[in-house]
Amino acid sequence: MKIVKNTHTDNQVKNLFQNLPKCIICLSHLRWDFVYQRPQHLLTRLAETFQIFFIEEPVFDAYNQPYYAYLEQSNNIYRIIPHLPNGLNALESVAMLKLLFDQFMENKNLSDFAFWYYTPMALEFTRRYIPDLIVYDCMDELSAFKFAPEALKELEQELLKKADIVFTGGQSLYEAKKNQHANIYPFPSSIDKKHFEQARHIKQSLSNKRATCQPTLGYYGVIDERFDIDLISGIADMRPDWQIVLVGPIVKIDPSTLPQNSNIQYLGPKNYVDLPSCLATWDVALIPFLLNESTRYISPTKTPEYLAAGVPVISTPIRDVINPYGKNKLVAIGSTAEEFVTAAEYILQTATNYDWTEIDDFLDQNSWDKTCQNMLAMIKKTITSRSLTSTKQIYV
């Protein structure tokens, strides 16, 4: 018996390159309607090629039997929410999730599917399946987040062994993971530039704003354990004549611990479509993250979004903000309330002379469309390479 490599004609290679699964099952730790970010940007674009099933973490409100709730989110995207009875322990939850997923996969051809993981925890109920393609889009170091499950690190190692291709949500996260997989690529945060550029046009219609309003510093995003409460409090104390607007849900922290200065407004979550209108009223945009394990590898999507909206940015020294934004002098970097105030004062004094040409040229190099296209090219390359190097047994 001899083992020989498959050989292919040019046409066969072309067919292999186009031989993508028909469907993607996305296994996510985030809810589709929570904050519109990386998964939503990518999957809405991938839905032009694939049918998408977006399976979220469970809701514990089922009266008796567990079930999947199906919602048609948009064209070719189906949101699936597992509903489990309340009061289950971890093993019982996994058993019910496995039952629901097995029922969903019943009579389905695995060669038609790719599994796209955002959370390694989903392996607990999907590991028995070997689909045609496994993608791990590691957008964050989830094990460093507050309340992260103890099993997360071990499950991630299992997922890295199973995955055909791995993407990371930033360059620093890529540097941390690059030796753990042979087919891994960094894809930092991108932008929908046209969407956020709407803020510039809205701002023009509010041209008399500065004469009638106090300077406004703003932030949108999740307010959680990564958010530097003391920094915001310090800025508000130092400049009581400035307004600080905070947009987004408060999760995993006690809201009573947040500063309650009269010049701080908590506006709660806003829809993605409304963000340009919010940004149009800001003079300065903030990225006020703590420097800790949970922020060590983050690549904030809001950085290029703020800039696309035409709002100058001040950030704490997050690695993926310093490089490339800080190094290219596109974003001001500060560590303390004093440094943020100094940077903001300079921005306010020079706002009329602000030159956006260099920033816009930089932003033109990046978009979610390009990111999605490049990811898809890497996926096709992975499928083709795997097929070309596969072996078959020939008896001679």
List keywords for this structure.
6-stranded parallel sheet; 2 domains; Rossmann fold; single chain; 36% helix; 15 helices; alpha/beta; disordered C terminus
How does this model look, in words?
- By secondary structure, this protein is α/β, with parallel strands linked by helices.
- The protein folds into 2 domains: 2-190 and 368-394, 3-Layer(aba) Sandwich (Rossmann fold), CATH 3.40.50; 193-363, 3-Layer(aba) Sandwich (Rossmann fold), CATH 3.40.50.2000.
- Helices cover 36% and strands 20% of the residues.
- It has 15 helices and 17 strands.
- Strands 2, 3, 4, 5, 6, 7, 8, 9 and 10 form a 9-stranded mixed beta sheet that branches. Strands 13-12-11-14-15-16 form a 6-stranded parallel beta sheet, with helices on both faces. The protein has a two-stranded antiparallel ribbon with strand order 1-17.
- Strand 14, helix 11 (302-308) and strand 15 form a beta-alpha-beta unit.
- Helix 1 packs across helix 15 (368-388) and helix 7 (193-204) crosses helix 11 (302-308).
- The longest helix is centred in the last third of the chain and has 21 residues, at 368-388.
- It is globular and about 65 Å long.
- Mean pLDDT is 91; it is low at 1-17 and 391-396.
